[in-house]
Amino acid sequence: MIKKRLAAAAAMATLAPLTLAACGGGGSNEPGSEGSASEAVSSLTVLDYYTESPSHSQIGDQLQKCGTSIGVATVDHQSVPGPTLIQKVLQQASSKTLPDVLMLDNPDIQQIAEAGALMPLGDFGLNADGYAPGPVSAATFDGQLYGLQPGANTLAIFYHKDVLAKAGVQPPKTWAELKTAAKKLTSGKQYGFAFNATADYEGAWQFLPPMWTNGGDETDLKSPQVAGALQLWKDLVDDGSVSKSAVNWKQADVNDQFIAGKAAMMLNGPWQIPSLQKAKVDFGVAPFPVNTPDQTSIAPLGGEAWTVPVTGDNAKMAKAAELVKCMNTDENQMLRAKQGGLVPTKLALAEQYKTEVPSMAGFTDAVANARARTGKLGPKWPDTAKVIYTGMQLVLTDQAAPADAMAKAGAS
Amino acid sequence: MSDAETLTTATEPTRPSSDTAPAPRRGRRGEEIAKVLFVVPAALTIIALFGYPVVKNLAMSFQNYTLRTFINGEAPWVGLQNYVAVVTEELFSKALVNTALFTIGSIIGQFVIGMLLALFFHKNFPLNGVLRALFLLPWLLPLIVSSAAWRAILEQDSGVLNVTLEGLGIINAPIPWLTSPDVALIAVILVNIWIGIPFNLTLLYSGLQEIPDELYEAGALDGASGWKAFWNITWPNLHAVVSVVLMLGVIYTLKVIDIILGLTQGGPANATQTIATQSYQRSFVEFKFGQGAALSNILILISLVFAIVYLRATRRQVDE
To answer: What residue of A is the nearest CA neighbor of B299?
Structure first.
């Protein structure tokens, strides 16, 4: 009897790997024409990944005010954790319960638009005139605009002012200066520099400042310019100026190391500023250095955009577009930027923002030049990002030389 | 089946005289229907919870199942394309080898340590119960929590393990537990062994409790004690439990993803990629659900081989 029961348990267990698979069926979702534009819309649903306080309530307030201003009584604001947002959207798409307004991280917009889940904003008379080129190219697929991004961020070098002053080191402006500064700042338990080089999209994103600044391009990963950027990362680790743990450090870990004084400088973004201020770190910010003086520093564009999913309810979609428009007014861009450590994406607001928030001046200039990850490759970006982070890990773990790492990682 | 037969014989005497024709026929038919009705809920549950996912997963692996599919429902059939794509990728053989090393390494470690601890706790000593309960802790912790804790412990520069080993003078330079492709797989296996010990300990311990003390007493009279007693009395009597522990262990270990994702995300430089992590990566990071399903079917097939070996082995025992 017991043996039989055990056998049954074992047979059931063979099915256990199934938990990995089969996450749901696909459904058809033709945009219907339920509801007409004249119908009154009393509520809209909004989905984003701002789960943390205070951003959740700040965004919630902004959405509610916008709702009131366009005559929508209730805005149902829901947030899910960042890594699960796309999975949630897929579930909603197959059960035809997509929200009326959806926030998406900028590199995801084109993939979702290509799949046919988003409405072109041009259909509702919206455009992105006067926006920085980065956010516009991220949200444009097949010539149509699918999202409006109120605020942007990017990557830059953060440094401990006191540590650099004590060592007599200036914030580096060239790669050579970065290497000597990082080496000089390395002593005892303190590394000179820290970055994130994990085997995921976050690691690929952190490699873009050296890659793009050096003239490398995602369409030609086997170029000497990309190899040069890999060499910089390798030199910093080989010199002992960056911990070998970089291959296992997320950006949050890098920030922890910086706060704990175990890294004198780090590559990170303005979303870390609240935690740095809370820890009373006296920090400065500088753009990512250039390899040769003729180059300009190019950093990748970060930040989220508001989109209008295809729900089939024309009246609601029209109101949803109005809500997206309202979230992107000059006042709301400024408000969101100040609250969220972002830079307004409308170029005309840049000067005013720099005077009002001097600590963000460095980032404001960087965002004007920031390049979208999906600008050239569109929905094909994730495949390339995988090659980038794999190649980078091969180099940092001495499995491949910078010159042939990307080929080994699968670059064509 | 045997339960149903007992039921029939048990109800036999309560029937009216068996020569009146219509009544028993109706009774027998009612019985047949009742039998079926008893099976229906279980059958439906199995079809919904096991049958549907298996079939769906099999179908997905032959379809170009992507982001688009969720939105417009289109999933064109592509034959064996997904299988060809995942098997011909350079990483596949590495992931397969890693899966084998991870499974074998984890099982040996978990089983040997679990067995030694079970034998230890089988003896009577004070605080036995308390200590045994403490050993269950790794099992009670959510895997996300334990992998985060281990990631901090194994951190190269300031992790408590390296700091302790250096402090004791056992090592001169920090061990790159999770940051060197040569060491990372070993580190991940060690953590998985730690997680698997309670499962092995608990099952083996209860197996030991089942062995009658008289056997040992009789063995002692014949001069069998210590290692001899283990080999001639404990091991043969523990056979059924051991094979179940190993069988379940293999299947649970084949499908591990959370520990690896939490510790290394398959890195550094793909050193800790397994078929399971690859399947997860394809499905939920790259949204190539067809390829993810193909990989998980390969994993199910490997599990199935072990299950069949196990079932044949136990059937032979029953026949004996």
So the answer is: A17
